[in-house]
Structures are given as structure tokens and as C-alpha cells.
Amino acid sequence: MPEAERGTTLVRAMVDRTRPLLSPARSLDTALHQLAECGTSWAPVVEHRRLVGRLHVRDVMTTYKAILERSVRRAHALPAGTVLLEVRVSAASLLVGCTLAEAGLPSGTLVVSVTRDGETVFPRASTRLTAGDVATIVADPASERALRTYLEGSSSRVWP
Q: Using an 8 Å Cβ cutoff, are 31 and 19 in contact?
């Protein structure tokens, strides 16, 4: 879309009613879900009832591919003596409802992300864990088994 048209074109002049209207504030996951539900390959992006752009499925896929490639490269560059693991927090886990600061994870453990209801959260110490969360963690290989059992709910803390 030409730069001169952005923000000045009324939405009703550009779209038919079968396409979803996307917001620039929403995640790509949400936008892709809306496109799939409507069976369309693109939709207008609208802010304050004005057209600000278009999002195509190919744009979303290109972005995901670029992010994945960067993530894979970074995963290969983990420091020696560390492992990258994903652990699902079970309903039986003692950590459900705890913040990461309260979790008492072993020294040298870094929770990189938490996936919750299909959305990725980049956690802080105040992030509360809920049943079903998938935590991506960088840790010392020696603590991997204990971390998994603790997060999955099969035991309590087993490190000092």
C-alpha cells in the first residue's frame, strides 16, 4: 500500500465484510488464527477505524521462519555445560500459583520463556506459573532430571 494512503483510507472503502479486521496491537498468533478461521490469505490492519496496512499469511510465515532460524542458531550456541529443556507444569506441581522468584529453582537456572494458552510470555521474577504452562529453561545438565520432576509435580525440591 502506498505510504500516502496509510492512515487516510477509510476501512469500508477497502474491504469486504468477509475479511477479519486485524489490530496492530494483536499478536501474530492471533492474526493467523483469525485468517485461518475466515479461510482468507490476507486481511486489513486497522487502527482507530483507519487502514494502516495489510497482513498476508505469507508475511506471518516469513516472520515465523526468520525467528525460528535465529532461535535454532542461538540454541546451538548455548554455553558449554548447559542444556535447553522444555517442561510442562502439571496441575500436581507445587509451583502452580508461585512466582518464579518464589519457585526456588536451582542456582544457574534461567527460565527463558513460558508458553501459556498458545502465547509466549518472556518471564520476570513476578511471573506466576499456572498448570499447563510450558517453561523453556536453560540449566546445568546435572539438575535437569530434578527440575523436570519438580515442575511436572512428581516431587518436591531436591537441591540445596
A: no
